């Protein structure tokens, strides 16, 4: 069954390039990104894993653990990581699940048979410290993901988990945010002391509150 925002992220035990992982236990109190790849030794996936490795410090800064999945076996992953390190000029620094039986891929509905019944699509799940799914994105095999966008969404998720705000289109860290509709006008000065702009009764903006 499809996994939706707000669902408990299914738990699993899997073999990875960094040993056996009990998913929930491994996440601990961190946020998590679980993302799938169609197959080892494919060009777009090679660039994606390299891109994520280079962003490791950005994920760490946000208390996010990253876990990749491909439905090839461990020995294939180990050989492929050598290629990724060589061609992308980095070191893969996060675990890659070996899922040749499609156990995790099926649990997370990562195979979309009308696209391809042999490979996973490019699924992304962002999981909160409460183990609930906060975001799902699905890309086709032919399109590599923009991991700066994943970081941007995590910034929004982490901000809106703490404050009664939402982030507008194309928002980036440091820009004004939208005050949640549930907040009454009279509550705003106490809750958002940096000030606010009332563009419309339903559109009220304020400087990012946690800066
Ligand atoms: C790739 O990662 O390059 C890829 C994988 C499957 C289909 C097309 C591209």
What does this structure look like?
Strands 5-4-3-6-7 form a 5-stranded mixed sheet. Strands 8-9-11-10 form a 4-stranded antiparallel sheet, covered by helices on one side. Strands 1-2 form a two-stranded antiparallel sheet. The protein starts with 12 loop residues before the first strand and ends in a 5-residue tail after the last strand. The chain has 2 domains: 13-145, Glutaredoxin (3-Layer(aba) Sandwich); 163-206, Antioxidant, Horf6, Chain A, domain 2 (2-Layer Sandwich), CATH 3.30.1020. Strand 1 and strand 2 form a beta hairpin. The chain is 30% helix and 24% strand. Helix 2 (43-54) packs across helix 4 (74-88). With 211 residues, it is of the alpha+beta class. Bound molecules: benzoic acid. Benzoic acid (BEZ) binds next to helix 2.
Report mean pLDDT, rounded to a whole number. Answer: 97
Number of strands: 11
Order of helices and strands: EEHEHHEHEHEEHEEHEE
Q: What's the tally of helices? A: 7
- Bound ions, cofactors and other small molecules, one mention each: benzoic acid
Q: Topology of this protein?
A:
Blueprint: E1 13-16, E2 19-22, H1 23-27, E3 31-37, H2 43-54, H3 56-61, E4 64-70, H4 74-88, E5 96-98, H5 103-107, E6 122-127, E7 133-139, H6 147-162, E8 165-166, E9 177-179, H7 188-191, E10 197-200, E11 203-206
Parallel strand pairs: 3-4, 4-5
Antiparallel strand pairs: 1-2, 3-6, 6-7, 8-9, 9-11, 10-11
Helix pairs in contact: 2-4
Bound molecules: benzoic acid.
